[in-house]
Structure formats: C-alpha cells, structure tokens
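Retro notes
What went well: the complex prediction finally ran end to end.
Inputs used:
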Amino acid sequence: MKIIVDAMGGDNAPLAPVEGALRAQKELGVEILLTGRTEEILSCLDQLGHKTIPKGVEIAPASQVILMEDNPARAFKEKPDSSMTVGLKLLKEGSGDAFVSAGSTGALLSAATLIVKRIRGIRRAALAPVVPNAGGNMVLIDCGATAECTPEYLLQFAYMGSYYAQRFLGIANPRVALLNIGAEPSKGMDLQKQTHALLTQAHEAGRLNFVGNIEGREAMSQGVDVLVTDGFTGNIFLKTVEGAAILFSGALKQMLLGSTKTKLAALMLKDGIGQFKKRFDANEVGGTAMLGISQPVVKAHGSSNGYAFFNAIRQAKVVAETKVVEDIAANVAHMRLDQKEA
Amino acid sequence: MKIIVDAMGGDNAPLAPVEGALRAQKELGVEILLTGRTEEILSCLDQLGHKTIPKGVEIAPASQVILMEDNPARAFKEKPDSSMTVGLKLLKEGSGDAFVSAGSTGALLSAATLIVKRIRGIRRAALAPVVPNAGGNMVLIDCGATAECTPEYLLQFAYMGSYYAQRFLGIANPRVALLNIGAEPSKGMDLQKQTHALLTQAHEAGRLNFVGNIEGREAMSQGVDVLVTDGFTGNIFLKTVEGAAILFSGALKQMLLGSTKTKLAALMLKDGIGQFKKRFDANEVGGTAMLGISQPVVKAHGSSNGYAFFNAIRQAKVVAETKVVEDIAANVAHMRLDQKEA
C-alpha cells in the first residue's frame, strides 16, 4: 500500500505533512510518496533527524504550489507542476493507492474530478467528514463540495455515506437520515420531500437503512450514522458545530480559570478535560474523504499538524484497503434515476 | 400596557403561563389578559395561592385548544374559540398591546398573519430568536417561519432584525451579517449572491450596518449582532446549536460525575456551572419575536416553565414599548424592491 502525500498543502507545510508521513510509514507500514519541492522536503527530513530519505519514503518532485488565492477551478491547470496536480496524476497512473492533501478544498475537488475522474454514474463528488454526536460518530455528506443539489445527488450521497460508514466506522447497517426542519416526510422544500421519497424507496428495496428526516438538534443529541444533506446546508451544519464547540470550550475555560478555587478544580479534572478535548479534536479524525472520485482522495484540514496528517494517511489507507470506491462502483446502478427498475 | 397571554399553549399549560403571567403582573407592572378555559385558569390561580382573580389580571374565556396535531394553516379557523384565536382577535381589536403564546408555531404564524395581518409591504413574517455567541447575543432571522426565501424577503429580514436588535438588545448600530458558506461576495447560491448585493446597497445608503457574509463557525465564535438567513437554513443553524449544547453539556456532566475526585471538583465549580447553564438556558430569553406582523407577537418555547413565560412576557412588553413594529412600518419603503429609488 502506497499513499501519495501532498507535501506542500496546508498551513504547516511542508513540515507537518512530512512529519505525519514519516510516522505513518513507521507505524502503519505504508509506503509514502511525497510530492513537492525536493529541497524543502529534504530540509524537513533533516529537521526531523533524517540525513537521507528513509526507507519506504520517496519524493516525486513538483516545483509549484497551489495557493488559497488561486482560482480553485483552474489552479491545477495553471500550475501543472504543483504538488497537488503531480500527486493526482501519479494516483491516476497507478503509482499509489490513495492521495492526501491539505491544500485548497476547491482546487482539490476540481483537480480530482478532472484528473482522476468521478466513478462512472456518480453525478457529483461529496465531502464526507466524520462528526461526533451523542451516539458516537456520524458521517456527514455533503459538507460543501456541491452546494446546490438535486434529489438524485442526495440519493447518491446517501449510498456513498452508507458504504463509507460501514467500512471506515465499522457500522454494519448504518442508520441513514436526511437533515431537515422536521421529522415528517412533508417537511422541508421540494429537494427534501423528493429525496425523502427516493430514500424511502431504497429502504423498502432493502438497499439502505433509511430512518427518515432528522433535525439538527437530534442529529447531534441522539444517534444517527449517516447524515445526508446538500453541500450548502451541510457546510452551515458543520461550521455551526465547530463554532458552538469554540464558544462552549471558551466559556468552560473561563469558568475553570476564574479563581484559585476553580483552578484547583480544573487540576483535579485534568484527565477528564484531556479526554473531552480529544473527543472533539478535529486532528484526531485526520481528514475528510472525497467520495465519488474513482480512487481514494482524502482532504486533510488546512490547519493539520503532524499528528493530523498521520491520521489522514491512516484514513486514506482504510479507504483504500476496505475498497469503498469499489463498493460504490458496484452498486451505482441503484443510484441512478435514469437506470432505476420500474 | 396590557399583555394578552395564551393560557392553554405549551407543554406545561395552563399552570406555567398563569404562573409567569402572575409574576409579570407583579414585577413588571403590566396588566394581563389570559385567554383559555376559565375553570382551568381559576384552578391554577388557586394552586398558586389566589382564591380570586388578582388585580391587574383578567380572563377572556376560550373553550377550545389548538393542539400540535391540528393542521397549522387551518387550526385557528377550525377552532374559532381556541385560546390562540381569541387572543389574536383581542390583539387585533386593540384589547391588548402584545400577544404571547407557547402553542404550535405553525398555527401561531398562520393565525397571526391572517387575523392580525402583516405590516403593509412586508412580504413574509420571520421568527427572530436571540442566540448566544462569543460576543454576547445575536438575533437570528429567520429561524423557520419562511423556509423558502427570495432576496427581497432576506433584505426585509435584515432590516427587521436590525431594528429588533436596536430595541430589544440595546445595540446602537447592529452589525448585520448574511449566513453563508464563505466570506467572499461570490459565495453561496443565487439567493445569497443576490441578497449580498441588496444588503451592500442598503449599507452604502447608510441604512444598514451590513458587515458581509459570515460562516456558521464565526457566527458563533466571534461577534455579530444580526444573522440573516432563510427559514430552512436558520432552522438548521438554530437546532444544530441546541443539539451541540446538549452534546457538550452531556459530555461535561459525564466528565464531572466520573469519580469521587471529579465530583468534588464539580462541587467547587458549582457557582461557575450555574452561570454557564444560565447563559445557555433558553428559559432566560423567554421567547421568539414574530417580526413583520402589524402588532407584537411573541412565541414562547413549547417547553416553557413559569419563569420562561415571565421572560416571554417581559420581552413582549419591550417589543411593544420600544415600538419595533412602528420602526419597521416607517421604513418599509426601503425594503421593497418595487419601490426602490433608482
């Protein structure tokens, strides 16, 4: 198993991706192919105690870097020798089993769609982050790859999210719910009503475990395994959870550091606070799978540290090993409205 | 100042509304007109230590109650003698200055729109809850009254939310932001792009303090005073914040009650936890203003206790006193696309 890692993407590149890659090579037994500026990568390796390129690690030189200010739709073409473009071309050619990048989400989406291509029959790719809820973790799909969706896109997202939850979260029969403003099938706009009908059909055919509409409140406070929504709403949902987490942890910190007495209490709670933080820490998950692309692509968070890159590579390995892409491709006939049986 | 209170709406009716009304009459110096079943209200008054109807409190008999299972659009007509219908008719006739109900949101919206009517020129009513964020509190508008919106509706929501934030939150020049999936004006779907242009125009004309697009994350973790969005997205936003609050407070509780040591720490944090809870407690705000209706209407939360009703009545009093409705009516010409100056 060889994972291609964009060494130049993200706020902490190239040190963080190189650090995460080294750890992944050592602990997960994967081979690593780093794309980027050779000298800068060698300098990071040196900083991390490696005078030469370690065994199991290779470098594929790429002289350019895609920046956040580049046009997402054109960046990979305008910078054909960027670490992202080079990495995706290597993936396409079969020089690796998965690609991990913390570069611009929009550029990665466009580049993956146009270089690696979507799975045949899949209309749109989707970003599927893992989000903690009271029941454990759920797959949110889509969180922003495709802002405006049709019922068919959402049907495809539901299937893709379900396969991913099975393989990556290890849930045998994932409960799939549609994010909506009420539980009844009549709730929401046309998009939600029509999608509800399609998901109900898929459920009745025994292909999906669709449990109905769910509101934002219950999605977080109760258990569901796959939360299906369009990219606009999913992005609002995800960012709102992140913002609420910042607000609450800030208020918690203020409470704990208020006085000598509360500081003492905070000390007594040290272990618990550590676990609490770990549970809601984005670095623990690593990255977000880009589902619908014909080979495994994982988007690492822009602010990823070395540990987050390690986790993103671990995630890419699981996606490649468990053959989520193959699951989707094998079942794509059920996901296309123009090919549905009567 | 006389506040009309639906004594039969909400999970804890009629005791909670009657209790909140009594307290409001005593502490806020308002007169109260309770609508509902006389005998049940008298029995609650008796329970609360009043053998006779206290001074400053009246009862307007209404034999019917609108239930959650009633059709929201037709309930007020099908039950013409319901506590909600009777209360809104009294408001319309001038027998009170504001109406508070914890009954079905959909029924209240339809009934208020059809009995009391919207302000002339306002296309749709909006529900504007007050939501805590890191900067203090913000007005979210709309949170579910109108799921599908046009740019003109959102322009009107922005103005209405701004007047309400001025009067109810006491913010002199409220910062108005549009909830979106990125900060740049080009982000979002047509609705957001067109609304951004309208809000920018209003800002340039000096009528609104529009600060641009904002993501869910920054809306919670930074400061903004008015958050404008369509009812579908606003409902997802609000419910997600509520769900995240439940998740975090559950995890916090688990952490604090884990062992004898952590229980001791929890005891030391008692005051802080109390303040923390108070800050995020829906009962503290009371209710949600229904803006765009030609007289003050406040929706109390279905699960309101007596204290929440007291706060909802206080809120209704502020809305009536500060003349938010008059503010909106006086400026409606700027909010209509068909009447805009070239």
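What we learned: Chain A touches chain B through 53 residues (CB under 8 Å).
What to try next: split runs per interface for comparison.
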